[in-house]
From TrEMBL, chain A:
Pfam families: Radical_SAM
Organism: Winogradskya consettensis
Domain of life of the source: Bacteria
Keyword check for Iron-sulfur: yes
Protein name, per record: Radical SAM/SPASM domain-containing protein
Cofactors (names): [4Fe-4S] cluster
Domain Radical SAM core per the UniProt entry, residue ranges: 75-309
Family to which the UniProt record says this protein belongs: Belongs to the radical SAM superfamily. Anaerobic sulfatase-maturating enzyme family.
Keyword S-adenosyl-L-methionine: yes
Entry keyword set: Iron, Iron-sulfur, Metal-binding, S-adenosyl-L-methionine
InterPro entries: 4Fe4S-binding_SPASM_dom, Aldolase_TIM, rSAM, rSAM_sf, Sulphatase_maturase_rSAM
Amino acid sequence: MVGRNAFRHPSGRVVRPVLNTATAKVYLVDLATAQRLEAGVAEGDDARLAQSGLLVEVDHDEAAEVIEASRVAARDRRTRDFVVMPSAYCNMGCGYCGQTHERVTVSRDHRAALAERVARAARGGRYDTLNVRWFGGEPLMGYAVLLDLSRRFTAAADEAGVGYAAKIVTNGSLLDARKLRALHRDARISSVEVTLDGPAEVHDASRPLKSGAGSFHKIIGVIGAALRDPELDGLHFTVRTNIGVHNAALAEPFAAELAAAGLAHDRVACYPAPVHSWGNDVSDVAVPRADLAAAEMAWFLAYQRHGLRFRLLPAAPRRVVCAATSRHSEVVGADGRVYSCTEQSLVPGHRDEDLGHVGSLAADELRPPGAFDDWYDTLDAGATACRGCAILPVCGGACPKLWREGKPPCPSLRDNVRDRLDLYALTAGYTPVG
Amino acid sequence: MICFSSGFRGAPMLIDSWLLQHAAELAEQAGTQLSAAAGVLHHEAHVFMEEITQATTTLHSAFTETVNAGCAEN
């Protein structure tokens, strides 16, 4: 993929940025080479282009190679993933959410069975690392459960001598300094992802607490304070913004508010994501696909103007697209039912797609096969548009579930990769020409 | 040993034959090197390629959400 614009290299050359999606590496190349890459024409001594993978033999099936690498990565993972929902309830009532929330008691037996399952994975000798992602509902509605399970998980990992990593995806409204310290120190959570949907009044209207109150100022205040807390200097934050018609044009005031709160910081990364269908109808709030790519660029530019950290292009190929495509990953709902996909447990129409109960599955066996374990065969068979898509290596197909539902989930990267490349070169310090 | 006689015009220049051969070899080597350098210059004029990275990318390694299609797991 080649950027649209030309830039001045310090050597005096005029160059254009190029992304090799197979390796996720970005290069600057001279204009003639850029044109040849765009046209797919090879000539003369192009050894360096071939060595970097920008040129391949005509009969080389890159897609097959990428898919096979993904299949192997999903099969041979040395990391065991557990997505754990310590609560099925959420204290927010976002209009676009596709989950249904209910108060469920996470029973003592369920906790013991899950802890045993994690401990067997740690002890089995198959894995180097346990990777736990706390999800919900709102996982902090099950804060005590989370801490209790974390204590057992980390003890099992330590005893077995394997690594342990944890992340939480939270709406952020229940965070405070005391909880953050416990989550980081005791639950060994190193990454907190919160969703903020725009400037305060828009966020508070789009993601209202069930009480009707807002949460924007509290959330950015807690994150800002955490960044100054020496006890939390290993904690990273990700700020996700769900982009819809309600906030697509508000990147500038949003970025300004985050920067003013001290979130233009090396430990805070921001990204925009389209409002997502969980199977529910989001057509009223979703930005039309034709406009999404441009809206996303406006958000990146606003991040850049205000010094917020963000990643424009993938840093590595995406071998395993999501938890649902590897049996070394599983999702454990608050009711103890085990799923392969995070969008089944609390989603109407999918709740009965569980693979069993954590209390009845054999503790030392992988989860039973799920609906998307054959994802890489599906890609290889050409059942989606992915096999011929240039961004397949860094996208992986995005969402197997949406493909199966007949809703192609192609990310906006496919539409704005050339613009992203130009902004990438700009942020790397190169001056545009012409 | 090379000995240039500057004492008077027409005096013979004394150069051993092995030295002439060595000089010829050196010239050939220089020619080869020049040719290789010219080839590199020509190639670089033809294909310039340099890998770059995003200046502000001091991001946590867990942060990979660049192709997000919406799912919280992406």
